[in-house]
Design brief:
Layout: E1 2-6, H1 11-22, E2 26-31, E3 46-49, H2 57-64, E4 68-71, H3 78-83, H4 85-105, E5 110-116, H5 139-158, E6 161-167, E7 169-171, H6 183-192, E8 198-200, E9 206-207, E10 209-211, H7 212-224, E11 232-236, E12 242-243, H8 244-255, E13 262-264, H9 279-285, H10 293-306
Parallel strand pairs: 1-2, 1-4, 2-3, 4-5, 5-6, 6-11, 7-10, 8-13
Antiparallel strand pairs: 9-12
The protein binds nicotinamide-adenine-dinucleotide.
Length: 307
């Protein structure tokens, strides 16, 4: 299989490219290196430095003839999207359309797209299933919801297959401090550097932390899955709520240090509990998370220490 990965020099992209190369797939990466690094890209993948908004993207598609596309390149910060909805819209929506146009004009069969738990906003029932009402509370969440609608309409009008994966909070090696789900990378770095940890609220707030290697495997499975399970949305998650206090405890154990967090007033608008049901991905895609949180945190901490 010949695959294009946009954003393949980034956190989730580079882990997914590594897995694709292990599977013997031919991989081309396009990335503007705005947050990704050349060094993250596997030596056997070909990196082309270009912006997803560039018209020349179509020339690359025409020359290379990809079977499938994993479109990860995006503006990934929720707070940035609140301050700059225009930039968020440009990169996440016009960027998507530029890629989808190149796909349909050059006969790409399938697009796999990373959506997000941010589409749900403050959900009424936990774990959140894919049919829950979508109530995004940021322009980033709105751009992900809208992207899903674009994928469905491209399917309807142009028969371009898609799978949209709503990731929970992804963590692991090579994660930056910006973007989504950055609490693990921020705390890991602070603990490694013996800096104080600040927790907003009482630390009882929960998130669903999923290891990046498990997400990379879900991306690959979505690209290769039979048509009968494509053209829909799946949560990619552990379906487990972990509190920020527990996360801090496990990271301190991984580091072999005693960490006493500073508790600050809760941030307005922060959702208290979050976990996504993964039953659809387990039963239909045949994907299951493999890495327990304690193991993933240990790996993440030791990777950062070595760096
Ligand atoms: N990390 C999470 O917890 C999480 C959760 C849900 C969804 N996602 C989604 O997964 C995808 C990957 O996120 P990540 O955490 O790996 O972020 P990342 O910032 O590490 O990776 C994004 C990559 O895209 C590249 N990029 C950004 N804008 C570009 C542009 N205009 N043209 C070309 N390349 C561009 C960056 O250089 C970077 O390499 C994003 O779509 C993000 O919204 C991430």
């Amino acid at each position: 299989m010949k695959v294009l990965v946009t954003g393949g020099a980034g956190f989730i992209g580079s882990h997914t490219v590594d897995k694709m190369i292990d599977k013997g797939w031919e991989v081309v990466v396009i990335d503007n290196l705005s947050s990704g690094l050349k060094a993250n890209v596997h030596a056997k993948a070909r990196l082309i430095v270009i912006d997803i908004l560039d018209n020349k993207v179509l020339d690359i598609f025409s020359q290379e003839k990809f079977d499938a596309v994993l479109h990860l390149a995006a503006q990934t910060s929720v707070p940035y999207s609140i301050e700059h909805p225009d930039v968020d819209c440009q990169v996440n929506l016009l960027g998507l359309v530029n890629i989808m146009e190149a796909c349909r004009k050059t006969g790409v069969k399938r697009v796999v797209f990373p959506s997000s738990a941010a589409v749900y906003g403050d959900a009424d029932n936990i774990p959140i299933t894919e049919d829950a009402e979508l109530k995004p509370e940021s322009f980033y969440g709105l751009s992900k919801c809208t992207s899903e609608r674009y994928l469905a309409l491209y399917r309807q009008i142009y028969q371009l297959e898609y799978v949209a994966l709503r990731y929970a909070n992804v963590y692991g090696e090579r994660q930056g401090d910006g973007g989504e789900g950055g609490v693990v990378s921020i705390f890991t770095r602070k603990i490694a550097e013996d800096q104080p940890i600040h927790i907003f609220g009482d630390g009882g707030q929960t998130r669903d932390f999923i290891y990046v290697g498990d997400v990379a495997e879900a991306n690959c499975q979505a690209l290769a899955a039979p048509l009968s399970v494509a053209n829909r949305v799946y949560n990619v998650s552990t379906q487990t709520q972990t509190s920020v206090n527990t996360l801090t405890d496990w990271l301190s154990k991984a580091a072999g240090k005693t960490v006493t967090p500073n508790y600050l007033p809760p941030r307005e608008g922060d959702i208290y509990h979050s976990a996504l049901s993964n039953q659809a991905a387990v039963t239909r895609l045949g994907w299951k998370p493999q890495i327990p949180l304690a193991d993933g945190l240990r790996q993440t901490y030791h990777f950062l220490r070595k760096k």
